Amino acid sequence: MNSASAAVGGAATFVWLGMVLAISFLEAPLKFRAPGVTIPIGLGIGRLVFRALNAVEAVLAVVVIVVVATGSPGTAAVALTAVAAVVLVIQIAVVRPPLNRRSDRVLSGEDPARHRSRAHLYYVALEIVKVLSLLALGCVLQAA
User: Fold this and answer.
1) Strand, helix or coil at 37?
2) Which string of DSSP letters, residue by residue, matches 97-122?
3) What are phi and psi of 74, to 5 degrees?
């Protein structure tokens, strides 16, 4: 992989990583601690923010995939790119729909404590896998 491709791939990877860390592990939990933010307001904000985050993640994933696919990456770069991309697809296609249905119910007035959902825990677990894979991928690409 040439140094320009590795630099672009590494930069896109670290931007992606930074966005996930900032939104998922900082903004998301803190918004519910802000004065006056109710669960419905927090859910409404969260849906907008995560929809935007996932859209930007998809663009960054395409950039990283193109860089890795057009370079001469090592096995580690290919595997880590695949892990990050697959995790993102699972989050968007499999985990977010149940989260959206649950937030729809809460926004329509259902008590959030009435039906607990494990989907949020799955999303967080997948975020951890994605963060670790992006961190490793960024390091691999920068070393190339």
Assistant:
1) coil
2) HHHHHHHHHHHTT--TTTS--SHHHH
3) -80, 170
d(CA 8, CA 44): 34
- pLDDT at position 26: 94
Q: Do the Cβ atoms of 96 and 26 come closer than 8 Å?
A: no
The average confidence (pLDDT) of the chain is 92
Interatomic CA distance for residues 10 and 138, integer angstroms: 5
Domain assignments of the chain as residue spans, ordered by start: 3-143
Q: Report if pTM > 0.90.
A: yes
User: Do the Cβ atoms of 106 and 39 come closer than 8 Å?
Assistant: yes
Alpha helices in the chain, H assignment, sequence order? 3-22, 28-31, 39-70, 75-90, 96-107, 119-143
Nearest to 140 by CA among 71, 89, 88, 58: 71
The three-class DSSP label of residue 82 is helix
Helix (H) or strand (E) holding 38: none
